[in-house]
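Quiz preparation item.
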């Protein structure tokens, strides 16, 4: 160990370096603590809780806002809008009158039931964005009771603080969304799934009210930072966050729950008069869910009792998927248009093509996620080829959906001239980059450029790919010739393009003869 590492100055530099890598500041005990300017000034000038203090939305206004992003799910929008407005009206009252904070209040925690891809997560993200509160989403399957295997459920609350940029006051009014909560139910209520019951118990404490430490036991750097701050006069800083006003939303597909409810409902039907004219799907029975169904499914009575608001999101039909593409502000079709715009290609889809995509996505049985699956499958090759083909517009028809490769080949053939022009431009770029790197100018005559373009079109190559394959020794060869002869400009002919290795060898041999002659 060097003297510098032994010295206090050397130790301080090591610690500063360690904290810098973790995006934390470090001040050595006993030294003058300098207060940061920008963050404190910003927190004094702007109240992060102002969006909550100004909350005045009505349930229908929240639902109308969600209509812009999520198609259908009207019942879910209504239930969530009422629950959200009730919750944040209460939070607003507590901020205005702190005495109301200690009054007994049952939170409107929500459980969302329904298949994947119907908009459960998207609904909550949109609501959190509208209100202006931090939002955290996680899967219930990654947590364990103790945190030794998997993650500690308290990490959800700490992540909420991170989502609030470290503002604990704002984080304590945020939203935690826990997906796949059906996976932590004890199997058949038998009690065999000890881990699932343990996670339910620890989540129950969060949903009721508890103080969570801002630093995990495994967060050594965070704990060291807290100690340093306390030693520097920051003893009054918050060490915990209270979960009293954090809203919890849990969701899951609950596939087997539908079957369970179906058996209960059918067992209560007696006589021929109760036979259903139109048999329900399993997911339809979720609308008849009762608390006892959750308990039989494997949830603790105390846990499900803390989630009083239940809402079912229905599967999406082909018509719904079509409307998502046409009218949703978060439509994946808009995303694909932006992707193609990034390459200078304007994407347009005909109505029949949109309908076909919706029908194919419906067969995927993954909800709105199926749209991206289908679009990616159809348009992947177009994204790969068109940016290098000089094509400026892509109109997707029903024929394109049914035969994408055939449509792409025809589009490329119809735009051979545009692609040729683009290849000529790329040759110019290659010449410019070569000169910048080597201080040597390459001069392609028309026949040479034409030959390169023809080869690139025939073998489906880019200019970069052609040069890397055919001109791999060009840089070394002309640099050597330039050293021998001080020549800084070379004319590239068609003969050289067709046989670069042979021609370059002749050039190099000739340069050595000229050098000896001198």
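Solution:
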């Amino acid at each position: 160990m060097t003297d510098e590492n032994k010295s206090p100055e050397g130790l301080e530099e090591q610690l500063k370096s360690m904290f810098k890598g973790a995006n934390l500041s470090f001040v050595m005990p006993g030294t003058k603590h300098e207060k940061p300017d920008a963050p404190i000034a910003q927190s004094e000038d702007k109240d992060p809780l102002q969006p909550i203090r100004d909350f005045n939305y009505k349930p229908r206004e929240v639902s109308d806002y969600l209509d812009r992003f999520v198609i259908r799910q009207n019942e879910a929008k209504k239930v969530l809008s009422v629950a959200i407005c009730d919750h944040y009206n209460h939070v607003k009252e507590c901020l205005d009158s702190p005495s109301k904070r200690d009054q007994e209040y049952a939170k409107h925690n929500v459980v969302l039931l329904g298949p994947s891809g119907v908009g459960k997560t998207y609904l909550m993200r949109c609501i959190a964005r509208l209100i202006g509160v931090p939002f955290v989403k996680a899967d219930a399957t990654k947590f364990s009771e103790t945190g030794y295997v998997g993650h500690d459920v308290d990490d959800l609350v700490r992540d909420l603080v991170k989502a609030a940029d470290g503002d604990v006051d704002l984080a304590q009014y945020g939203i935690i969304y826990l997906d796949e909560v059906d996976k932590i139910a004890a199997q058949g209520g038998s009690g065999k799934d000890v881990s699932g019951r343990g996670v339910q118990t620890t989540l129950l404490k969060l949903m009721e009210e508890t103080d969570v430490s801002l630093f995990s036991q495994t967060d050594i750097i965070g704990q060291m930072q807290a100690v340093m701050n306390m030693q520097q006069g920051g003893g009054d800083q918050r060490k915990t966050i209270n979960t009293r006003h954090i809203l919890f939303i849990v969701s899951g597909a609950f596939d087997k729950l539908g079957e369970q409810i179906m058996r209960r409902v059918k067992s209560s039907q007696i006589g021929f008069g109760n036979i259903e004219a139109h048999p329900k799907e399993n997911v339809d029975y979720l609308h008849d869910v009762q608390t006892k169904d959750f308990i039989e499914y494997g949830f603790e009575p105390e846990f499900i009792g803390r989630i009083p608001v239940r809402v079912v999101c229905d599967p999406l039909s082909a018509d719904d998927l079509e409307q998502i593409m046409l009218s949703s502000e978060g439509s994946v079709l808009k995303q694909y248009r932006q992707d193609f715009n990034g390459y200078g290609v304007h994407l347009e889809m005909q109505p029949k093509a949109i309908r076909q995509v919706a029908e194919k996505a419906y067969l995927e049985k993954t909800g709105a996620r199926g749209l991206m699956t289908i679009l990616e499958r159809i348009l992947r090759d177009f994204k790969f080829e068109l940016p290098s083909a000089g094509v400026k517009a892509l109109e997707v028809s029903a024929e394109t959906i049914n035969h994408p490769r055939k449509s792409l080949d025809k589009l490329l053939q119809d735009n051979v001239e545009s692609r040729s022009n683009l290849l000529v431009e790329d040759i110019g770029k290659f010449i410019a980059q070569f000169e910048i790197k080597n201080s040597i100018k390459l001069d392609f005559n028309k026949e040479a450029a034409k030959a390169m373009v023809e080869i690139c079109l025939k073998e489906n190559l880019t200019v970069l790919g052609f040069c890397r394959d055919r001109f791999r020794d060009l840089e070394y060869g002309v640099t050597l010739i330039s050293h021998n002869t001080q020549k800084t400009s070379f004319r590239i002919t068609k003969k050289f393009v067709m046989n670069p290795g042979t021609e370059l060898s002749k050039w190099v041999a000739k340069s050595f003869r000229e050098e000896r002659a001198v």
